[in-house]
Amino acid sequence: MPVISVLKECCKSCQLCVPVCKQGVLAVGAETNAKGYNAVVPQEGKKCVGCRACVTICPEAALELEV
Amino acid sequence: MMAAGYKRPESLQKRITGYCPGCMHGQVNKLIAELLDEFGLREKTIGVLPIGCGTLSMMNFNFDLVIATHGRAPAVATGVKRSAPDRFVFTYQGDGDLAAIGLSEIMHCANRGENVTVIFVNNSIYGMTGGQLAPTTLVGQKSTTTVQGRNPKEVGYPMKMCELISQLQAPRYVVRRALDSVPNVIQAKQALKKAFQNQLDGKGFSFVELLSNCPTNWGLSQSESLEWMRANTMKYFPIGDFRNEEAAL
Fold first, then answer.
1. B53: domain range?
2. For the domain that residue A57 is a member of, what is the CATH number?
3. CB B212 within 8 A of CB B121
4. For residue range A11-41, what is the model confidence (pLDDT) as tens digits?
5. What is the rounded distance in angstroms from the CA atom of residue B237 to the CA atom of residue B177?
């Protein structure tokens, strides 16, 4: 099953990945990283289908996909 | 068919970029790095960076770089490529760098048909210096030096660099793409791939213009800036191929 992981320290919380995920896997998290950004986090119970939309739109290469 | 996975490219440093959140400069950095990894070119590449927001890429790229004086990246790339023809050489330039102070260098580099790749990031404003009018600022678009919006009677019309360069005979590949959406980012990567391949095949000058955003200086949120691009920038600067020849000259 595809799994999305977030490189927390590289995320700037621009949130472009959030609407492109039709499965609603990604949402802004409550914790901040070292630069003060609320990194996105994969949501419990949501299923990634490995469509690559989020890793494609992310301008920071802060998302990684394992299939 | 299951899509392949994705790993952050080796050609990027593992640190946060200096760009504003949602700025597509980061996207261009990422696409270049992905392609250098895919081509196995990281150890053979010399990137030539501009002055402007593009200079921040020096903290991001994980390969050899030269930072040219303002606008002179195509001239520096010419020197690098001619003295080390086995290296992969590209320039990374913004619209203030390429279309204003560096207009002479880009036109002559293109006219000579140098075997380099020029990547032109057009966000239609001067980003780093605080949002002044650029040669590519749209008619009516507000900047800190045209607070009522660009008035063509005072400062002329936005310059279309792809259209200008494609009037020359030597360039082999002159295209414009946008970075506003997932499908367009994929197309932008394909264009960059073709431009990189042209250089590897010794075919000569390739120019890829990538329409980008500037949420900070446009005064919009990240997603609003992409919508604004679609509604305005992409109307005036149509995406497409302006020169795509297998055999020039």
1. 25-243
2. 3.30.70.20
3. yes
4. 999 999 999 999 999 999 999 999 999 999 9
5. 9
- Residue B213 within a domain: yes
The interface predicted TM-score of the complex, written ipTM, equals 0.96
Cβ contact B94:B102 at 8 Å: no
Give chain B's domain count: 1
Tell me: pLDDT of B108 over 90: yes
Q: Is residue B53 part of a domain?
A: yes
- Whether the per-residue pLDDT at B248 is higher than 60: the answer is no
Which pLDDT score, from 0 to 100, does residue B249 have? 47
Which CATH number do you get for residue B61?
3.40.50.970
Reported as a single tens digit per residue, the pLDDT across B61-92 is: 999 999 999 999 999 999 999 999 999 999 99
Q: Which of B5, B9, B16 sits opposite A67 (nearest CB)?
A: B5
What's chain B's length in residues? 249
Domain count, chain A: 1
Residue B17, in any domain of the structure: no
Residue B12: how many other CB atoms lie within 10 Å? 24
Minimum distance, in Å, between the CA of residue A55 and any CA atom of chain B: 7
Rounded to whole angstroms, the Cα distance separating B213 from B131 reads 12
Q: Cβ B182–A57 below 8 Å, yes or no?
A: yes
- Which residues from chain A sit within 8 angstroms of residue B22, using beta carbons? 12, 14-16, 59
Task: Write down the pTM of the prediction.
Answer: 0.96
